[in-house]
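[audit] Reproducing an earlier prediction to check determinism. Same input, same settings, fresh worker. If the tokens differ from the archived copy the diff job will pick it up downstream; this log only records the rerun itself.
[audit] input (636 residues):
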Amino acid sequence: MVTQDDLAGVIGRVLGGRYRLATLMGAGRFTEVFLAYDLLQSQRVVVKLLSGEAIPGERVRDEALAARYLQAAEEAFSANHPYLVGVRGWGDSDFGPYVVSEFMAGGSLQQMLASGYLLTPSQALMAGLEVARGLEHLHSSGHVHRDIRPSNICFDLRGRARLADFGTSWMLTYSEAAGALAARSVFTSIDAARYASPEQAQGLEADHKSDVYSLVLVLTEALSGRVPFQSDDAEYTHMAKMSRNLDLAGQFDRLGRVLETAGRPDREERPSALDLGRGLMAAAQTLPRPTPLPLAETGSGIPDTGDIPGAGLPAAGPAAVDGSGASRRGPRRLLPALTVILAVGALGFGAYLLWDNWFGPETRPVPDLADAGDADLLRIENEFGWVLDRREQRQDGTVAGQVLRQAPRPGTGLERGETVTVWVSLGPELVMIPRNLPGLALEDAEQVLNESGLAVGDVFTRYDEDVIEGAVIEVDELFAEVDPASSVNVVVSLGPSPRVVPEIAAGASFAAVREKLEEARLEVLEWPEPSSEIAADHVARVEPPPGTEVPADSIITVVVSTGPVEVLVPELAALGVQEARLLLEEADLCLDQVEGPLDTEVLASNPPGGTITESGQCVSLITRPDEDAGAGAEDG
């Protein structure tokens, strides 16, 4: 486990033979967090080492804690989902157990708030919907996150929100570490109370409804710059949550009503994550398309402090919020051109309302609302005391905000407290995005969209194991229906991700090597070749060599030994030594020892002529002694 004395020696070390630690990003509540480089996949990752300060005694290893930490990593790995920050791996090292997760290059919601940026209702709705989908997956698997906070909501470079740090909340209940964790934590008791649900404030067990409540608090902070019921007194914060409802119905358009319902003190009255997502989807119909978020790696100016809990907490105090709920420090919601036109005509309408409210009779005539804007409709309630029943619908040939009809008709006399019903356009009817885009080539998908009056928007690419290169993987849109003439973002396949030729030991069986290569999605070409060093039917080598990066489905040549080449030892009797040497070399054999004179004829060889032996084998010769040669001459 890493201690403060060890940190300097950790940078540059490679954990598990794969993850090189690059920089210390900061300290979480239980871990030291490092930006690292995955040497195998050639990409950045986050490595979290269990802090040595989590256990009293620092350098004394707590095997039970280490085992539970890795168990939590395995649990988080099994909860894989597009809206959860994925765990890539885990292991043990000289510095203690570690967990590897995806690097969220877009930064965290905590960073955005710390920079002074507040989300518009559309941006908050989008982020909330994505996190709710991640929670829905966790809850359906029987898990509870227990630690929803801005630092645990991170963004990828496409601005998609992902929920982080699931699986480590069990550390809060680990009794032996509790005291040390509290002592070193960058979070105070007030911080712990800030996002807790009312039942958690009462010391009750958190459940899936507790996660929903915490998410509502986070989204409210993202919109307004302040957490509801926030106070310097943790006990007051807890009591307020247990006894008071959120009051958001008049803020942030229809989104405020959804958040208010989901933030009720009684958890039995709160929606599930699934129902919260449905409410957000319904509210989205009344909001404009969200503008891009200021991500950490897109020149936003947000400091790159990572998604570390506690890094850059937002300043206390409420932020300025306009009537739509958007921050004055963030991007404002752009009103359609029609609103500007209606605003000009609304001057006379507003003056009439004010005059009639002061001097008119108890029963006032309903004005013609055909040219009324949003502000004028609000005056019906505020200045006349009528109840406004606003009903929204889509209708072709209209623009958003246009009044379609009203009841009662203009000129009808109404008393205070009576109802005026107004039907307001949300714009023309939505167009269904064609469902057959996945699997089509990009050019074909563009043609299909054009036939529906739509166009291709941003084209994102990623590797995919099943979709061929150049084909559409999915549509990158939150809703199945979009405004007419909209651009539709799509994700296009780069084909399967590249492979690395695995390590192959010389002498391994061909069957084992084939299985290993096919598991890596590589094709195998068997190439027989004789070898004196490698046994028959075993692998001599592979080409290209191990460690080479190749496209998926590449052909890897596996050179398989057929064993040594067998040759016939020639008949050498009666030949001279030099003649015998040449004959042996022609047979791919070599001359070993010569027993006897070198200038007499060969009597025999070892192995003898006519014997089958391995190619390259050396043969010994026996030659006629000198005295035999002399005796033969006298006899002649």
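[audit] rerun output stored. Observation attached for the diff report: Residues 109-284 form a domain with the Transferase(Phosphotransferase); domain 1 fold (CATH 1.10.510.10).
[audit] end
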